[in-house]
Amino acid sequence: MEVLREKVEEEEAAEREEAAERSEKMRPAEVWKEETPMTQEMLRDLEKKLSEMEIPTPADPLTFPKDTIDISMLPQSYKTNSPKEELMLQVADNFSRQYSHLCPDRMPLFLHPLNECEVPKFVSTTIRPTLMPYPDLYNWDSCAQFVSDFLTMVPLPDPLKPKVKKEEKPPPKKYAIKPPRDLTSRFEQEQEAKRQEEIRAHEEKLRREAEERLLEATKMKPDPLHGLRVHSWVLVLSGKREVPETFFIDALSGRSYSPQDDHFLGIESLWNHKNYWVNMQDCWNYCKDLVFDLGDPVRWEYMLLGTDKPYLSLTEEDDDDLNDEDDVEALGKEDEDKSFDMPPSWVQQIEITPEEFETRCPNGKKVLHYQRAQLEKWAPYLNPNGLVCRLTTYEDLEYTKVLEIKEWYQNRGDMLELRHINKSTGLIIDYFKPGHPQALRVHTYKSMEPEMDRVMEFYEVARVDGLIKREETPNTMTEYYQGRPDFLAYRHIIFGPRVKKLPLNSTDSNPRPPVKITERFYRNPEKPADDDVAERVFLTTEERIQLRYHCRSDHITSNKREFLRRTEVDSKGNKIIMTPDMCISFEVEPMEHTKKLLYQYETMMQLKNEEKLSKHQAWESELEVLEILKLLEEEEEAHTLTISIYDTKRNEKSKEYREAMERVMHEEHLRQMEAQLDYLAPFLAQLPPGEKLMRWQAMRLKDECLSDFKQRLIDKANLIQARFEKETQELQKKQQWYQENQVALSPEDEDLYLSYCSQAMFRIRILEQRLNRHKELAPLKYLALEEKLHKDPRLAELLKVFG
């Protein structure tokens, strides 16, 4: 340390001598200056030009407002400098003076800014190497130590496209139907095409004009401070930890950038927790041509020696020369003599609590502004409705006219995940995660009032009826199904006006009457196509039922059938019999059994029952829509958020359950402690209180305790033996009674006897096992009590004499 101080003093003395020599040399120049007026005029012009130039001055040192940082809570290392740090600052000042003298046209070095307590600190001491996520990171602020995890987005390969099997064309038919003639006018078609082309050209012109206006409005103005700003980034050098190439990381956003990026105009200096390097390369081509070999003193001027700096990249010949042991030892000794120990970091270790980590940003909210868009982010559970992100898109650049809003939610009890609001059309789309009580997946609507335009999509796997989507309008309802056992695929219902006007909240008590119900079915492979219904239509007001069957593969049309429903009795009360005019059918290949009235009658009766079932299902669909709307409104008002069982801070139920379990365990422990009674208490109560035990009294207490325990063991064995003999005698008496009255017994009495014998044998077997077990454990218990008495602190000292 003393050697370094002497070197610093010698360098300062040399600088003072050089300054004196320069002042002496300036004297003849001044005389020459007076003797040459031409030179004086040139110097005045140069001085005038220089005075007109604006030289950017470095910004003021970074300071922190005292009202935002409580410096009283900071450790002493923030407020003062150790002797080693003071020496480091002197070395840094000396290096800065030499740099300013050799490079007067470059900006001053950023070496020792002021910290929170306005104390100068060397930049390398602001880094804690234990928190460095990479081995070669260089930064100027301790906050940059905590850098977000760098994620490299690797483009995934395109999915393999499945091979599409080409359909084999059927052989040409001998006879084909001629297509109808085209009777449209070519002139009208040409005029229509010309008109559409003009419309498209006009729209394209308007679009180009709008784009030009947008480009003109968003055109960036020239930046007067371009190239004058200084920003600190994190540099990750290649070579270690399988880092293939050097790249930068923005310490504030965590994004990575290549040195080839145009964001970087140049590099002034680099530093880590061991050394400081100044870039001596020309940055005319930004950072694209920079060589990041910090061991090259020509390109990077280092500040300290002997701090494990990266070695210069060597050729094979130079590498062979350095293999000489003598040279390596000599080099090591030289570095050892000139080495300087960097002071330890003065900053505290960054500690982030779970609560602070969950907020993700100051106060848990962050707002980002983009061109015609605004992005808002919140921490989970910060908003009572579970809102965590909102993206608002605007029509203009002034953020006044809203086009659409997208809101993302988390931890919602109703499983709401995303809400898309289109302000221009008023359309709202809600997206739900799996787990909704009604298996709702997407809800598209404009109003939450019933019997309005809306579309509901469901998770069909979670529904028993296989409903996929339900579309509703004020007068219609359309449902789509999949995976049903009856092969139903589609149901369209047209409602008529209500008979009596009631408030909207009583729609379940006065449903709308269905006027027309159309149902379509998938193909049932177990039925022939001629008997498999593809579509059926119930015209309730017209009392008609229309059927259309599936088309066979070798036919060009399908069978159709229509039933005309009539009242079952006429005006005189006579029952109406099925007549041929009540069924109108078209069959490609007529069959005999379909023409019979019995078959038509049975089919019509079955269709009547299915019509009633379809009406009932339509009514249930209306009720389900009302129930879903009511549930959504209740959930929107309640804002119930789900909390994980592992979140002990917010989960009150889990906390109460844990406290209840701890209370129960404590009570159980107290009961166990109470159950362990003092086995000597009954015998010690016979002695006078406060009297000290004698040896013969201790021996007597031990014998009485053992004899009492032995007697209790015998009494327990006698009790079990007595119960065993009692059960055996009762069973023998019952068996003797059965032998005497066996002939006159009824089946019920025999069942009762057998049941009694089974239960008696079970009790006898249990008593026998308990008796045998008691005989095995009684001696062991006696010996255990005897050992316990010998170890009892009240008798141990007195019983040792008799041992």
From TrEMBL:
It holds the Pfam family CEPT76_peptidase. Residues 16-30, 179-203 have a biased composition (Basic and acidic residues). Residues 230-303 form the CEP76/DRC7 peptidase-like domain. It is found in: Cytoplasm, Cytoskeleton. It comes from the Eukaryota. GO terms for biological process: flagellated sperm motility. Keywords: Cytoplasm, Cytoskeleton. The keyword Cytoplasm applies. Residues 691-799 form the Dynein regulatory complex subunit 7 C-terminal domain. Its main location: cytoplasm. InterPro entries: CEPT76/DRC7_peptidase-like_dom, DRC7/lobo, DRC7_C, MORN_DRC7. Residues 362-644 form the Dynein regulatory complex subunit 7 MORN domain. Residues 1-30, 161-203 are annotated as: Disordered. GO terms for cellular component: cytoskeleton; motile cilium. PANTHER family: DYNEIN REGULATORY COMPLEX SUBUNIT 7. This is Dynein regulatory complex subunit 7. It comes from Sciurus vulgaris.
